Amino acid sequence: MDLVAEDLSACNTLIVERMHSHVALIPQLAAHIVAAGGKRLRPLLTLAASRLCGYEGVRHVSLAACVEFIHTATLLHDDVVDESELRRGQASANALFGNKPSVLVGDFLFARAFQLMIEDKSLETLRILAAASATLAEGEVLQLITQNDLSTTEAQYLEVIEGKTAALFAAATRLGAVVADRPQAEAEALDAYGHNLGIAFQLVDDALDYSAEQASLGKTVGDDFREGKMTLPVLLAFHDGDTAEQAFWRRTLEEGEQGEADLGEAQRLLERHNGIGRTIDRAETYGEAAIRALDIFPANEAKLALIDVVRFCIDRAR
Amino acid sequence: MDLVAEDLSACNTLIVERMHSHVALIPQLAAHIVAAGGKRLRPLLTLAASRLCGYEGVRHVSLAACVEFIHTATLLHDDVVDESELRRGQASANALFGNKPSVLVGDFLFARAFQLMIEDKSLETLRILAAASATLAEGEVLQLITQNDLSTTEAQYLEVIEGKTAALFAAATRLGAVVADRPQAEAEALDAYGHNLGIAFQLVDDALDYSAEQASLGKTVGDDFREGKMTLPVLLAFHDGDTAEQAFWRRTLEEGEQGEADLGEAQRLLERHNGIGRTIDRAETYGEAAIRALDIFPANEAKLALIDVVRFCIDRAR
């Protein structure tokens, strides 16, 4: 997105600057995640949404950095593993540093995010990001509760991804209207855009985690399977499966008994019931809703960029 | 402290109210810690400091709740255990719920704290609590770095406890002057009071962790020893120890090789070098500095209450 390339570069500089601490392990560990983060999707959304609203100041750069800090803190806390997972020999995500540093550096980044928000001196932006942070934590807890539980409903799954992903996307885009001091209708349109995009993004992520093509590209697949996460592809295949198939899902996902061939078998069952294809179809529906939410804005470069983000998110899966 | 009994009761009500979530595990787990927290020392400090400054509104109640939420989030994150500790079979703190729920519910409480702060609509109180949160995380990371490392200096130890304990104490008391809109000198006096009290409090805590009397009262001792935490009693005894004693500390604290009789041996070595007594002497010095910091305030019930807190913290060890 050339439109916001300069802003994004300023945002990156700010992120590196603000993750500094005299406690050297903090920038070391944070750099590991922040650098690996790569695509900077969430801050990019704040930057583009601000442009869409005609904003010409600099506040959007630090708000975009706040959004990325909150996301990074979440990634670090997602890396924490539980005793049960360790027992199954699956501790690898935070193998480099261990549980405790991941937690504490995440806390530091979260506190830094709030310090940066406070510098923006707007209670409204603070409210939006604090509420998104609380919803995000609720979504993560709900995900934990539904883990290993095949009685999870589609509605519960949707609630999980609305919390863990869509809430921060919606906050990131809503901020654009808020910094530009635009009317409520535009803030709500951008919120709806971010919310629907976030759901589409997570649906695609959940589909890709079982994708054979991803595996052929050298990307990790099967993380959700190993963790017993209840994602839409599995819920669909489980629901439509016969008795033997349902027993397979129960053994592997509920009881956590997995052998080497099981991920392949899971992929075959998803294929049989078109679990991935149907998940991506849903993602497209949400993506269309995201694009429609932008209807109230005039066509311009920023709007095209935000539409491109939706296409990019969904095309990952095609 | 009768003076603030009503305020503290209002604060407790607010805490229970605001830790609510439709995700039932959150209030369940939070209640477990919040209820166990018991003494509510930090919010009590905010309440008493506000009274000392002649404040008569209600803002101090919600700020006190924010302070307690931040503290509770820290406790939950402190419960997270690392693979190495698990390997030594020492995972018990969060045995009831596991690592991940502790992390995520802590995140939720931290976000809730900020939501509550934002309702206070003061950028100044937000700044104080966000800065304390960042310093707290830095102190915790520094503690992790010095763990199992007997080359830790007293200055480094002091920096750890200033971060992990004194920063939030200082913020809690400084808030009293800020809500009451008192001059900078009073804010700084209350900050100095909280800072010195926090150090004294942590020194006593670190002494009690090796105290035979505590053990006889049925309280847990030896947690710091098992975790290889570098606390002042140990640093003093190690520094003054002979070759055989230093080898003992290296084996048990640096290499983590501990047998059943080792805590007893550690206690004998601390006794020989008066490690506990000298730590408590230091605590008294900080306690006196805390009391002196209150000199600029006129004598009244609130001031006596804050002086009592210092005495209470130190008398735990006598």
Automatic annotation (TrEMBL), chains A, B:
Its cofactor is Mg(2+). It comes from the Bacteria. PANTHER family: ALL TRANS-POLYPRENYL-DIPHOSPHATE SYNTHASE PDSS1, GERANYLGERANYL PYROPHOSPHATE SYNTHASE. This is Polyprenyl synthetase family protein. Keywords: Magnesium, Metal-binding, Transferase. Signal peptide: none annotated. It holds the Pfam family polyprenyl_synt. Belongs to the FPP/GGPP synthase family. CDD domains: Trans_IPPS_HT. The lineage of its organism: Bacteria, Pseudomonadati, Pseudomonadota, Alphaproteobacteria, Acetobacterales.
